[in-house]
Amino acid sequence: MQLNVFSGSDRYSGVLDRCLIFIAVVMFLAACGGGGGGDSDSGNNTGNLVVNAGPDATVTEGASYALSAQVSGGDGTYTYNWTASPSLSIAHDDTSLSAASFVAPLVNNATQYTVTVSVNDQSGNTASDSAVITIAPVNIPPQASIAVPQRDDLPQNTFPGGVELILDGTSSRDPDASDEAVSDYMWSQTDGVNVITGVETNLSTLTIVTPIANEEQSLSFELVVTDSEGATDTQAITIIVQSESDTLPTVSAGVSQGVFSGEIVILEGEATTSIPNAMPLTYLWERSNNVPAGSTAGRPIDDSDALSTFAVAPAVSTSTVVAYTLTVTDANGNSVEDTVNVQVRPMPTPLINDTGFLQQATNNALTQAQQNEFPGQDGQRGADVVEQNGLIEKAGRGKAGFDFTRLNANGDEQDADADTWSCVRDNVTGLVWEVKTDDGTFQDKDFTYSWFSEEVNGGFEGDETGANGTCLLTNCNTSAYVQAVNAQGLCGFYDWRLPTHHELFSLMHLGIAADVAIDEDYFPNTGEVSSVPLWYWTSVPSADGVNSDDAQNAWALDFDSGVDNFLNKSTAGRVRLVRAGR
């Protein structure tokens, strides 16, 4: 047996060599054994789980994009979760698969979204990776549009000279803007006489004044619109401008009306011309011939060659449309006409009197002249003005639209020129009225009475004694006076009573300015105009002046001023009795 002996240094060198070789092998195996290839790794890897979210990419707005991740390591059973910042609506129906997708949202500028996939396996290992998706806008160019107001009396895009015209580009739009608004407008004139000098051309509208010239003009314009991405679109338009001799005046005969026979028809025309050399304008009003000849008292149109005038509506038996035509002629011989239709109806049988007021008001005065600028006044409508125009047939007589007949002591009709009468019948309302005396008998105009009623009284009968009144009766109150007149049988009637508020007001003649407000040809001895009101009682209690639910007041009318008011029932007031009615 041979025994080999090694020195200590040789033995140590051999062991060291073997150890270095082992370490190198282990390091090589560890380097070759990892997954990878992802753009980034969270570092939260257990069990060598490695995720790759895919490459960065650019996607156009509105396009669908597919997401897919690659995973290695772990236990081989994975759950995927996709998220994005800013948020995206990611479709991912099966989380056991990496496949997902989204539709790129609409953007105005290129926008980056970070898409992240997180992966878990059943062993609890997790890993994630991200990719950057850039969404790029797809610009749709704007759409320029020009709208021009058209005239019914001229061909399309044809306009008179000397008029303001607005070219409107507000209907231009940017389809891919959230509000479809265009960013910039720019107008230019490409042909014809320059009309845009000094005009703002960067607005959505272009306002011009058409030129006045001896010859017809052609003007062309262009609108360029720009969107927020810098894309543009252009729209052009050409208009024709009439020569000054062909430019017609404009005319309006006013608005349609409805009146009764004999009422005022307001003829308020409007006429203009944009051509200075076409002045002055002349006017002519004419009425249609579809009404009976001579049916209107006086001339049908007051001043037929005035722009603002009036007519009296003709008398008709059935509702009739009467046309009034205004013809306007300029200095160049151009004539234009317009017609206003007036519905004229027969004057109905009135059931109550008109007010008697025929004056008309301006903003600072009263006048008898027709006031077209202030239409609808009392003095332009109703029975009073119809009577003034001679179109009311009365059974009796009376001022303005009032129609009265005198009655004698037996209630029989008297001639209109009779010297004495006891009562008056109102042929409009059918009411029969007491006539006051001035002879000291109990119907004398100067006697006054307190208000008293045992029945309809608002909860308070009133003042029975009539201590404030003056009369020939024991108790100067309204009820006692009614009983006295009925006991006498005035005009052969025994049903006299206090009038209602409306009945008494129907006698008011408000057109009488300097005397009592009643037709004294039929109602003498009403009283004297003075600083003291001529209060006449009505039968109506007043809701004002209520005490413990009882009406202490009643309504009365002042035949001096024409106003009404409520008076305490103990007040001394005059009385005019009434009976019958429609």
Automatic annotation (TrEMBL):
This one is known as Lcl C-terminal domain-containing protein
Where does the Lcl C-terminal domain lie? 423-579
What is the taxonomic lineage of the source species? Bacteria, Pseudomonadati, Pseudomonadota, Gammaproteobacteria, Alteromonadales
Name the Pfam families for this protein. K319L-like_PKD (PF22352), Lcl_C (PF07603)
Task: Tell me the superkingdom of the source.
Answer: Bacteria
